[in-house]
């Protein structure tokens, strides 16, 4: 209702209230390279499409005259209470959408009381984002590095930076097949974007220096290396000149590409997690019910049912469809988050009715960022939450627990 009141008072919104227009306008202001990376998906884009189509197969059945004038949108998740069942998904290489993006997102999250999950592939060290958020809620997302020293280091930093939970992303042990980026010959990481968590990590510097200590390959000045250095100068002047002293950016980029993940990641690695951190552990990227059961058997506090926004496996199951089978498999108690394809408050409602405890937004808030910086992110969050609130008012659901499967039918 605040949103309508502001509209009535003539406040012009900084972002469109509907996703289709938000996307159109964000595309117009983005470079081809940024758009390919952020909006793109794996292969032919079938998973990305399916994520949306899955929502169309359910219909909400509104209920009347519930007698409840107010709604309580808050939810308890491992690690704390949230004002609404919406969190900001970890999104790497955000600098593609403008300099300082991670800090802008962090401020928007804090201003709206929304938890922000810092990406392992952030463009700003997590400590700087945390400092911009005061006491507001943040989590940290980890890619399990091939080098255990980095795993230890990133977990320790996340704890020190006040993370409320540790999210370990399982679905990106290698990068998916992404034709749009491949066709443009561009991935942000090769240009030094998205490696700030590493270059600011003393352990990573040690690793880079250790590698350089081996019989050193002669420094070769290739066209690619020059391009990388130029891009780094443009995107992060401060960091670039700082890095020039030591270690060499190129060595950092190459080391990063080599060790950011562990293609051999197994349940044996994950079994060690419980003893490595005092934080709640959230496993992200689960789609199969057996994997979900296994995650909770290992002591995970929550699972994010996700196909990474359709960016990893083409023709994969829609994450909303996976949510249904995962919820059936694990029963009502375990905490399930859902992402991939959430575009509106009505989508959040549908996901909650199908068994999610909360959802993550990915691209929508990045589009808000592209259009209007911090204010744009804030408004995208407010719009989604406002529509959820209105949907609850119109379906007779005074709180999140009241949003159940009985309010949906197959469409
Ligand atoms: C992502 N995602 C992601 N996930 C993760 O665990 N670590 C990461 O660094 C990234 N990076 C990333 C970059 C970009 C540009 C996008 C669009 C996505 C996946 C993200 O957390 C989330 O799962 C999806 O974005 C959710 O889908 P929607 O909302 O974008 O459809």
UniProtKB/TrEMBL annotation:
Cofactor dependence: FMN
InterPro entries from the UniProt entry: Aldolase_TIM, Alpha-hydoxy_acid_DH_FMN, FMN-dep_DH, FMN_HAD, FMN_hydac_DH_AS
Pfam families to which the protein is assigned, alphabetical: FMN_dh
SUPFAM superfamilies assigned: FMN-linked oxidoreductases
Keywords from the named record: Oxidoreductase
Transmembrane segments: none
Ranges where the FMN hydroxy acid dehydrogenase domain occurs: 11-411
PANTHER family recorded: FMN-DEPENDENT ALPHA-HYDROXY ACID DEHYDROGENASE PB1A11.03, S -2-HYDROXY-ACID OXIDASE-RELATED
Similarity annotation: Belongs to the FMN-dependent alpha-hydroxy acid dehydrogenase family.
Identification of the protein by name: Alpha-hydroxy-acid oxidizing protein
